[in-house]
Amino acid sequence: MHARTHARTHARTHARTHARTHARTHARTHARTHARTHARTHARTHTHTHTHTHTHTHTHTHTHIHTTMHACIYVCMYACMHACMHAHTHARTHARTHARTHARTHACMHTYIHTYIHTYIHTYIHTYIHTYIHTYIHTYIYAHNVYQV
């Protein structure tokens, strides 16, 4: 009985810690990488598209890159935080149901988000949220089956 309680506590703690660490690290890395890539791509496109004076193009491009980077990082961090909170709250009590619900929810979200911010969030959802939810929930379900949580 003591062993089972200890194992259950350890499984929960480890799953939460791992998920939290992964979420923070991945969010920071992804936001940084995406901001750089997007800024470079946008700067090239914007410069070629707008053929005003050199001064106007230069100022406008830099202002836009600055705004874009902040917007990307904000969206990324908000989504990470929301996904993290949502998964922690529901996975503990409804691990199996949540996994099934996520599949259905993702289908609805996918259509709207793909249209709304296109490549950026499309990549973000597939890489980050799928990895996070699969890691966290699968670990938790495994613990549930082995330790009879």
Automatic annotation (TrEMBL):
<protein>
    <submittedName>
        <fullName>Uncharacterized protein</fullName>
    </submittedName>
</protein>
<feature type="region of interest" description="Disordered">
    <location>
        <begin position="1"/>
        <end position="62"/>
    </location>
</feature>
